[in-house]
Amino acid sequence: MPVSLNASDKDFTARFNAMVKAKRDAEADVSTVVAQIIADVRKRGDAALHELNAKFDHVDSATLGLRISQSEIDTAATQVDPQTLAALETAAARIRDFHARQRPSDDFYTDAQGVKLGHRWTPLDAVGLYVPGGKAAYPSSVLMNALPAVVAGVRRVVVTLPTPNGELNPLVMAALKLAGVTEVYRVGGAQAVAALAYGTDSIPAVDKITGPGNSFVVTAKRLVFGHVGIDNPAGPSEILVVADNKNDPAWIAADLLSQAEHDEVAQSVLITDDAAFAEKVGAAVRQQLSTMPRSNIATPSWEKFGALITVGQLSDAAPLVDAIAPEHLELAIDDPQALANKVRHAGAIFLGRHTPEAIGDYVAGPNHVLPTAGAARFASGLNLLDFMKRTTLVQCDEASLQKIGPAAVALANAEGLQGHALSVSIRLPRGAV
Amino acid sequence: MPVSLNASDKDFTARFNAMVKAKRDAEADVSTVVAQIIADVRKRGDAALHELNAKFDHVDSATLGLRISQSEIDTAATQVDPQTLAALETAAARIRDFHARQRPSDDFYTDAQGVKLGHRWTPLDAVGLYVPGGKAAYPSSVLMNALPAVVAGVRRVVVTLPTPNGELNPLVMAALKLAGVTEVYRVGGAQAVAALAYGTDSIPAVDKITGPGNSFVVTAKRLVFGHVGIDNPAGPSEILVVADNKNDPAWIAADLLSQAEHDEVAQSVLITDDAAFAEKVGAAVRQQLSTMPRSNIATPSWEKFGALITVGQLSDAAPLVDAIAPEHLELAIDDPQALANKVRHAGAIFLGRHTPEAIGDYVAGPNHVLPTAGAARFASGLNLLDFMKRTTLVQCDEASLQKIGPAAVALANAEGLQGHALSVSIRLPRGAV
């Protein structure tokens, strides 16, 4: 049974806090195995990749080559039906447009002391996108990870993906074509992350690795972090819907189940101001679960991690939202902007009754790679800045150095760094400090 | 002896690449010990902190309390002389001004399909700044870490620092006062990171941890990453100076040594277009090393990791700079902007003959917390955005959902996520998909 809470209950705070703190992500500790795989790839390069490909995916990449050729990509992509292809094109265009607006500004100015200073943004040279195999190979994720890098101006956008039994996923290949990605390698797991981070004869190293993956992939990314950049670790999906009783319970139930169907440890939570409406949504969920194709996944998710929470008034929802810091926040209420303005922590907010979260998974435009498990307290969804970096600039002339230099000399000496002090004072007139 | 390379040498590329790849950071693997400390702090909270404080710092925090009182801070800060305090004030004002210009813009617009969308930035609620003890307790680092958080609007800026034998560093206390930080705890090492990440009775948890530290602190930050945010791992400092023969060799030598004095594994590199000038700088370095106070640190750094590189012409320096991706790049040449425009990777660039790198360590304004060890390929120096996060916003109405909804339904069905599809199609007119 999903949790059912009412803010007027005596034990509400304790039960709510227990729900927020419950760990849904029982990730296996595979760090020893992963460290061995990384060491093996660093030592033996392509040979290690071929061996692991043969073992895990039954793929003879030593013969086929690690690089997936453009003709292989093209051939697989032709299997996608025109309607789906058109939908992918719609998604790609909207994602491009949204991310293009995020281009940051450079700044270079002269301050009152005559110092010129500022910063500039440049794209990364090369990024690697990990695309999972099997059931989690989503073309929408390919677009969401690759397009911000492309829009940022990254020269090399590289994709690695496992190809179990040598099969290519046509939808993924079509998404790669739409995103303009041409450098694609058949290799998955921790070995793909190792190859991207350290390079092999066939796979030149990249500067940053993004994209979802299983515990081996996530652990490998953690271990190579620092040598290359990585994105934020992503946990199971979650949705928090704030809805009043003017909604159709079936709509809200569908929204809750759209996350529950992702993963048995996904979490779907409703906050409403009407206990009777909460019950109606619960009933609608049960009804939809009885017919939905992925009921085998959505049912345990809802039973174990679902929650129906009733509060005195909708504005009481704001602190509860912040405590959860949800990946997805849906506000199906009369004045969603007013409540959104009271909320501080959420990865993405979906405003109003006609904005189901799933619209953001595909075609709205904003990225669907979002902070999970409360990380919205400190992290942002994937965006253009993840594929760029900032360099600061300073230029003093003789006059401006004379103005600000003496303070630097004083601080360097106070810190016991006389070499620092000398590098400034040597440029100042005698007697200036 | 420092490396001396000339681009006209046959083995130049091999020797240059060897220099770039040389690992300067022999960090001990302390992850087992650190994991135990974190587990202990999570389990026993304040009691564990008191025990470790007594053991390592000979501080009785059980009696004193973990919180350092405002009167303790004030009393220690009064020991700072007026000239140093004025210099700290100059630094603080300039750092504030520079970071205030970085405030990002929100965006909310209506697109051609009638979808309203955009993003907004909000500050983090609480960040913890780790301040090292002993020789590495630099007031400038306190300002560089704390002020961007304060300017971003972070409500709780918390500092932890070790107090060996109970002593407070007056300069650090003065810097904390200038930054407006009032929540300060006496605890260092991995236990401080654990307390900040998970909270204890005395130290409420924060959302992100920044600041430099030894291998225990760095390892602890890695281990708590994901539960809280962390900054980029920082390695030993490094400077790359590009200089022509119109410079005074003594000035350039001083700049090289200003980094060498940081750490025995710091790295200082000169690139010039005149082999004779390189020799003069080498001689000036030897001369300055013979008199500088921190010669015991700067000499092994220069001997082991220093390099003098001669290229055919200054524009040849650009690809070498990018290969190194230096933390600090100084361009002491006639047209520094022209070369800066050719460089892609550097943490901070210092333009012209009157801009020694050390000016940026203290008073220029840009942050001195910068990516090291080649991380400038993918990372930025600390800035305002490190203390803020972005939430995306989407709002459809009935009409706009009808326009973009069918593509979402098509993609959800193609991915086998019929629950996603239903949450959109249930809001569309019958027959729309």
From TrEMBL, chains A, B:
Domain of life according to the entry: Bacteria
Signal peptide: none
Keyword Transport: no
Cofactor note: Binds 1 zinc ion per subunit.
GO terms assigned for molecular function: histidinol dehydrogenase activity; NAD binding; zinc ion binding
Cofactor dependency: Zn(2+)
Pfam families for this protein: Histidinol_dh
Catalytic activity: L-histidinol + 2 NAD(+) + H2O = L-histidine + 2 NADH + 3 H(+)
Pathway(s): Amino-acid biosynthesis; L-histidine biosynthesis; L-histidine from 5-phospho-alpha-D-ribose 1-diphosphate: step 9/9
Keywords, comma-separated and alphabetical: Amino-acid biosynthesis, Histidine biosynthesis, Metal-binding, NAD, Oxidoreductase, Zinc
Binding site for Zn(2+): Q259, H262, D361, H420
Transmembrane parts of this sequence: none
List of residues binding substrate: S237, Q259, H262, H328, D361, E415, H420
InterPro entries for the chain: Ald_DH/histidinol_DH (IPR016161), Histidinol_DH_CS (IPR001692), Histidinol_DH_monofunct (IPR022695), Hstdl_DH (IPR012131)
UniProt key word NAD: yes
HAMAP family: HisD (MF_01024)
Name this polypeptide is given: Histidinol dehydrogenase
